[in-house]
Structure formats: structure tokens, C-alpha cells
Amino acid sequence: MKSLLIVFCTCFWAFAGIFAQNRPILYPEPTSIQYGQGELLLQNLSLYVAPTASKDLVFALNELKQTIRERSGKSLKMANAANTANIRFTVKTPGRELPETNEAQPGSTREQYSLSVNAKGVEINAQTSTGLYYAVQTIRQLIQGSGAKAALPFVTIQDQPQLAFRGVMMDFAHGGLLTIEEIKKQIDFLARWKTNQYYFYNEVSIELDGYSTLNYKASYTQDQIKSIIAYARERHIDVIPFVNFYGHLHELIRNEKYASLAIGRYGHELDPRNAGVQTLLKNWIKQYTTLFKSPFIHVGFDETWETKRLNSTGEMSLNPEALFIQQLTFVSDELKQYGKTLMAWTDMNSFYPEIMKKFPAEVIPVIWQYSPDSAATYHYLNPVLKEKKPFFIQPAVSGWGHIYPEAEYTYDNIDLCLRAGMRHQTLGFITSVWTDSVEPFVRSSWMFMAYGCISAWQGKSPDKKVFARNYASVMYPNAAKEMGDAFDNIATSVEYLKKCLGKNTQSMPRGTLVEAWSNPFSAYYLANTEAHAAELREVRKYSEEAQANLIDALKKASKSDSTFINSLLVSARLINYSATRFIWAKAIVDRWNYAMLVKKKEDYVIYDLTYPCHSLLVDAMDETGELKQIYTQTWLSEYMPYRLNSILGRFDVEYSLWRKLHLKVVDFQIQRKKEEPVQSFEAMFKPDF
């Protein structure tokens, strides 16, 4: 009997272990979760929706119906009455679909929900339709299997966010302009991770009445913005205007009509002393507050370096700190009339340590820090804590200086900012996505956006060592292994590329993108390539593996995921080419110099360099041309045409480098006189753009 008991217990715990291993991955992780034994088949579920149900309830329930149809292959059964349905839900308070200014007050339950699945059915209890909607997002991840076997595990969940405000800031000022369809896809994506704020960072990218020539056909219409706001509202995401009302306005003041409003000439910053600035901003503020219904507005006020420079160089006699406070006070007073809660960055306290004392009382400081450095974070946070001000904290996806974001750097930045924020009771957490380099696709940042949003809900970051693979399982269940491998391989290729490039970043910290287009034949880069030959080969190896993973994933992925996966594939090819161009330049120089200077014999070197269908120079031309074509297609699947030609010009210049060299080597072969001395490849052909 004792031995039978041991066998039974062993089998039971083995079964329990297998069951635990097969439990679904839930991002964000609920506050409390308890699994039972058993499951509920989706095909046995039924739902009743009252004819009088409000639009927000119907929207959440329609998403539930769609999810069940996608996973089970059949439409959800609709019951004739609430007491005959086995999906039951309670929503206590109508309305309140979006975050409120008092969201962070203790005891707020607007987003809270409970979820229970057992043999009797599914039960959801929520304070508002927001909680119901979030419960649906959790159900989406709980479902296991597909078709007739699709089922929900028995489970009891209690859940609510650890942070009241959880947002993503999308840059619509520096890079390309995402299509409206792409923005809505982003909003759908962010809603899956229970994000509740979408910061629309803009300088002059929204059409304003009376400013028709400002970025003409390179901006969003007000009707388009209204459609984005309405779309996000259905998904319980508040679209918040993020407009710089002081610096970063080169696109405005580069125009002669507005140049006199600048502190310098054709620079970046408005002049707070100019009455015309107040007239313009009063007009803008009225238009923005009419367009955006959010109770919040972020006004930037970062990096007003030009005012400081003009003062320090003696060009003008200025008091940059006083001008900053003057401008912030004016903007704050003006926005107060419209009932807006104003947010502003605080990086100027790096130059003026006492400036926080002078901030208008109603302005919420936002600490931005984009490096994984606790000391740097507290450098900006400590002055805010000293003044006992409520605050937001804002890390970033480190993607603006790379073709594909720097994964480890991004994870660590988010982790450290979150820990500091949680320790000091931050009101909210904003994950930034910047597009300064223009070239990278924003889609490469999506996984890291999810990481930030998940972290904000949980109040702690996921395990970064397994996050990419778990994320792949949630997002791409049909190609989870291939996508997990791809994320790992492409991140590793970026890590190796970092070891080779990054000295010249054009103020984009640690970026490899600027140098990736440098002349690979210059003496500096030939020496750099020799010193980093092993790392450059590793870049190629891992990026090629990533390409193979993504090609395999395309064979398994759903049609809706294919366009997205293809964007990653193009990014992997671009990373590969960044390494290849340096390796090829060094190989060409070495091959020529060894044959012509050491062996003093042509030895098929011209064939190796110029043969029309397969040679080093032709390889480079072929790949540059192919990349230009697929890059164009991929860009237009994500962005409007604006700024595309600025990037395509890089491919054109690159192609001309290899083409000119090809012609020069061919001409050398035709025109060569035997008595003429042969020089090194660099001296003879002077490779340059």
C-alpha cells in the first residue's frame, strides 16, 4: 500500500509539473492568479449581450467574440437571456473609459477586474468597461489549443495595475510619418498590454488652421487626428498631445515668415521676450485643446541649448533660466484656462539646479533618462524629489541610433527607470520611441514598447532573459520558435556591430547607424575593419541566422503578421550589409595589393573584383540595389512617402561608390601599359563617394 501511495504521489506531481509547464504566458502578469484542475472548451461557451448595452461594453464583448472565433474556428454562441449564458459579466459604473487626472489616488478601481473560469463558465467582474476590456485581453492569452480543442484553463484572477498611467510616446516629428492605418495597428497592439496613454509627439506634424504652408503635405489633418483619438478611446487609450512650445521648433522658424520669432536666426527655440511668440502660442493652444480632449498635455521644454549657447558665447546678453521659467509660466497660465494638466521635461535642472523650485506649482515634471544608469536617472530625479513634486518617469527604446534597437541597453534602461519610479511613487511611466535617424522602422521597436507597458502594469519588469521568446509565443503562436530565435539572433548581431562602430553618432548615443554608411575604403575604416574582422563576421553570421528564422516564420505565420515579419527581415538584411560593406572593402584592397604589389602578378584579381555576375564589386552593387527596392516597399507599408527619398539617397550614393570602382578597375585593365608602375588599390583608384 505504501509503495502504491508513493507511485500515486509521484504520478500526481509529475502530472502537476507538466500542467504547470503548459500554463499560458500572461503579459502583463496578473496581481493574483490561481489555477485549478480542468479546462473549459471554447465551443461550449455562450454569451448574452443586452440590446441596451452601451457602446463601450459592446466593443469589449465584440473583441471577446472575435478572439473566440479566431481560436476555435466557430462563432461564439449567443444566448437569449443573461441567465442562460455561461459567460457572465458585471460592470458596476458606466462610462469612465479613459484615464482620469485623479487616477493615481489610493483606492482607484477604474481598471480593476476579476476573472474566474470553472466548469460552470466564465465570470468577469469589473468596476468599469475598462476592466472588462482588460479581462478580455487576459482571456486572449489564457486560451490554449485551437479549433475544437481550444480551451480556457480553470483559473481565478484578481488584477489591477501597479501604476495608474502607462503610456508610450511616439515620435511624429523627427522621422517618417506613420500611416493612419499603421498608427491604429500600434494602438491595437498597445491595448493588448493594457496601455492607457498614447503620447503623440509633434512639433509641426499636425495641420493647424492659418498655417497652411507649414509642412504642407507632410503632416496629419485634424480629421485624421480625430479618427486616431476615437479609435484609441474604444480601446481605453487616451491620446495625449505632446507639443514642444519652446525648443525643437526648427521646422517652424526656418520659414522666413516665422524666423523673427526665434531666439537665434533659423535655429530651434522661440524667443519668450517676443510678443509675437505669445500670439502664436495662444492660437496653437486653442487649436490643440479643441482637437485633443485629453485632460493632459505634455509641452516638452527640453534641450533649450541654443538660448544657453547664445548667452555663453557672448552673442546675446540673456538669462536662460529666467527665460525658461517665463515661457513655462506663460504656457501654464494659458493652458490652465482650458482645464489642462500640464507636463514638462526637467533636463534643464542639469544646468540650473534650483530651477525646480521655480516651476509653476501645477506643472507635473517628467524625468527622461535614456541610459541604463541609476546615477544619471537620479541626477534628474533628485531635484524633483527634493521639491516633493509628483512626477512621471520616461525611459526609451534605444532604437534611434541603430537599424534595430539595442536590446540589452533598452531592457536595462526600462528596468532602472521603473525601479526608481516605483521606489518614489511615480504617477506614471512613459516608454519613448524616437525616430531621429529616420532610417529604422518603428516596427522593430514594438517588442520593446510591449516590455515597457507590461512592466508599468506589473510594477516590475519581466525576466529579460526569456522575454523575447515568451513574447514570441504570445504574439506568434504559429511560429513561436522561429520568431524567438530571430529576436535573439538579430539582437546578438547588433551587439557585435556595436563593438565595431559607434564613435561618430551625431549625438545619438552609442549609435552604429551613422558610421554604417561611412566610406569603408578610408584609411580609418580599413584599419577598423582589420581590428574588428572577427566581430564583423559574427554580425554577418547572426544576422544571416535571423534572416533564415524570419523566412521560416513567414511560412507559418498568419497573413496579418507577414508584413510585420518582413519588416524585421529587411532590418536583418540591412544589419548584414552594414558588416558586409566593410568586409568587402577590406577584401578588395587586400586582394589587389597582394596580387599586384606582393606577387606582382594580376593573378585573376580583376576577375575577382569585376566579373559581371559574381565578384566582390558586383556583389555590393547587387545587394545595394536589392536593399533599396525592398526598403522602399517596406517603408511604404509603414510610412507615408514623406522623407523616404532622404533615405533612398543613401542607397544611391552607396551604389555609385561600387559602380565607380567597378568602372575604374575595368578601365585600368583596358588602358594599362605594361611599363607603368602599379600602385596600391587606395592610391590608384581613390575610392570615395
Instruction: Could you tell me the CATH topology label of the largest domain.
Output: TIM Barrel
The appropriate CATH architecture of the largest domain is Alpha-Beta Barrel
**In CATH's first tier, which class of the largest domain applies?**
Alpha Beta
Largest sheet, in brief, is: 8 strands, parallel
Structural class: alpha/beta
Oligomer: single chain
Question: Please, how many domains?
Answer: 3
Helix percentage:
40-55%
Task: Indicate the radius of gyration in whole angstroms.
Answer: 29 Å
Strand fraction equals 5-15%
Query: pLDDT under 50 segments (min length 5)?
Result: 4-20
Total DSSP helices: 21
CATH superfamily heading of the largest domain: Glycosidases
The average pLDDT value, as a whole number, equals 94
Side-by-side strand order of the widest sheet: 10-9-8-15-14-13-12-11
Can you characterise this structure?
The protein is of the alpha/beta class and 689 residues long. It folds into three domains: 32-159, Chitobiase, domain 2, CATH 3.30.379; 165-462, Alpha-Beta Barrel (TIM Barrel); 486-685, no CATH class. Helix content is 49%, strand content 12%. It contains 21 helices and 15 strands. It has helices at 2-21, 55-72, 129-142, 180-192, 222-234, 250-253, 275-291, 305-312, 320-336, 374-386, 407-423, 446-458, 464-475, 480-500, 523-531, 533-556, 559-598, 605-610, 616-638, 644-671, 681-685, and strands at residues 32-41, 46-47, 77-78, 87-91, 113-118, 121-126, 151-159, 165-171, 197-202, 238-243, 296-298, 341-345, 364-368, 392-394, 428-433. It has an eight-stranded parallel beta sheet with strand order 10-9-8-15-14-13-12-11. Strand 9 (197-202), helix 5 (222-234) and strand 10 form a beta-alpha-beta unit. The longest helix has 40 residues, at 559-598. It starts with a helix and ends with a helix. Belongs to the glycosyl hydrolase 20 family.
